[in-house]
Amino acid sequence: MSKKSILITGGTGTFGKAFVNFCLESNVYEKIVIFSRDEYKQHNLKGYLHNKIGVKQTNKRFRFFLGDIRDRERLAVAFKGVDYVIHAAALKHVPFCEYNPGEAIKTNVNGTKNVCDIAIQEEVEKVVVLSTDKAVEPINFYGSTKMLAEKYSIFSNSYSKNDEDSNKKTKISCVRYGNVIGSRGSIVEIFNSMVSKSHFKITDDKMTRFWMDIRDCVEMVQWSIDNMVGGEIVVPKIKASRVVDIAKCVDPRKPIEIIGIRPGEKIHEQLLNRRESERAFGVGKYFIITPESSEWMNINDYYSTHFKPIDRERYFSDDEDIQMEITEIKEIIEAHSS
Question: Where are the beta strands (DSSP E) in 186-269?
Fold first, then answer.
C-alpha cells in the first residue's frame, strides 16, 4: 500500500514544526504539505529542512503553500490530491481575540468551516481539527470561537459523501487538549520569560491548568488519524497542577505576586462539559466523546459495542486524582529544558 500525503494548516506553528519532525523520524507520509500565511516562517522551516535532510529530499517530500484558511479558493488548490488534513491554524491569544472579535470569527469559525467544506469537496479522506480546553463551556471569546469550530467540524460529517457501503468519504474528528509545554505562550514558557524579573506574576493562587508535552500532542493526533471513525472528539488522559507549583519548580527562590484574575480567564479549566461524560468512552490513553446525534454511521453504537463508558462525571484541572506531585512537575520541566 502506498504511503499517504498529509497537509497541515498553520504548519509553521509550534504543532506544525513538531509534526514535521515526527514525519521525518517515522517516515509515515510520502508527501507533507505546509499551508500557512507567514512567508518568513515558511522560509525558516524550509531552511531547517534543507540542513536536516538536504535540498533534494526536502523538494521531494515537502510542498509549501502560502495561503489563508479564510480563502476557500486557495484551500481548494492546496487540498487537491491530499489524503489527510490536520487543521492547526487559529488565532489563539485570548486578549487579542477579545479585542478583535471579528477577526477571531473570520479565522477560527469561518476558517474552520472552509477547511471542512473544502476537504469534503476535494474528497480528503480524514481531517483532524485541533481544539482546546477553553472550548468547553467557554467564558471568553476565543473559547467561544473554538467551541463553534468543534461543533461545525463534528457535524460536517453529515455532509460527507457516502459510498455503497455507507462509509463516509471524508471523516472529520477533533482533538481537544490543554496547555502544551514547548508551545509559545505555555505556562512554562511564560515563567521562563520572567526568570530575570524580581518576581513571578500569577493571577490567582488557586488557579490550576492541564498540561502536556508537545510530543504527546503529536502522538494523539496521529493516533486519531489512524483510529478515527469520524465525528468523535479525542481527549487525552492527562494530569494537571496548580500554577503556583509550576512557578516554584521553575525557580523556588523567586517571590510570587498575585495580581488578580483577568477578563475571560478561568480559575480551573475542563476537558469535558457536563453533558459529554454521558457519551464518553475510555480508549487506551484517551477519552472519546461521541456526538449527541448523527445522521451518518451510528458512531455511538460502534464505541458502546467496543469500549466501556467512562466512570467520571467531571474532568476539571482541580480534580484531586489528576494532580501532579512536585517531583513530576520538576522532571517534566527539566526534560523539556534539556
Answer: 200-202, 208-213, 233-236, 240-242, 256-258
Phi, psi (deg, nearest 5) at residue 296: -110, -160
For 249, residues 6+ apart whose C-beta sits below 8 A from its C-beta are 326, 329, 330, 333
Cβ atoms of 87 and 115 closer than 8 Å: yes
Q: Which of 92, 134, 146, 266 is catalytic?
A: 134
Domain boundaries, the chain: 68-178+214-235+271-316
For 148-179, write each residue's pLDDT tens digit.
Answer: 999 999 999 988 876 555 567 899 999 999 88
134 is catalytic: yes
> How confident is the prediction along the chain (338 residues), in pLDDT tens digits per residue?
568 999 999 999 999 999 999 999 999 999 999 999 999 999 999 999 999 999 999 999 999 999 999 999 999 999 999 999 999 999 998 889 999 999 999 999 999 999 999 999 999 999 999 999 999 999 999 999 999 999 999 999 988 876 555 567 899 999 999 888 766 666 667 776 676 677 888 889 999 999 888 999 999 999 999 999 999 999 999 999 999 998 888 888 888 889 998 888 899 999 999 899 999 999 999 999 999 876 666 788 889 899 999 999 899 999 999 999 989 888 887 777 65
- In one-letter notation, the amino acid at residue 291 is P
Closest C-alpha among 259, 252, 246 to residue 323: 246
The domain 68-178+214-235+271-316 is placed in CATH, from the list 3.30.1360.70, 3.40.50.10490, 3.40.50.720, 3.20.20.370, at 3.40.50.720
Neighbour-count burial for 103-118, b at 16+ CB within 10 Å, e otherwise: ebbbbbbbbbbbbbbb
From residue 40, alpha-carbon distances to 37, 45, 79, 96, 140 in Å are 9, 9, 22, 22, 31
> Phi then psi for 27, rounded to 5 degrees?
55, 35
SS3 10: coil
**Residues 123, 103: Cα–Cα separation, whole Å:** 28
CA 184 to chain centre: 13
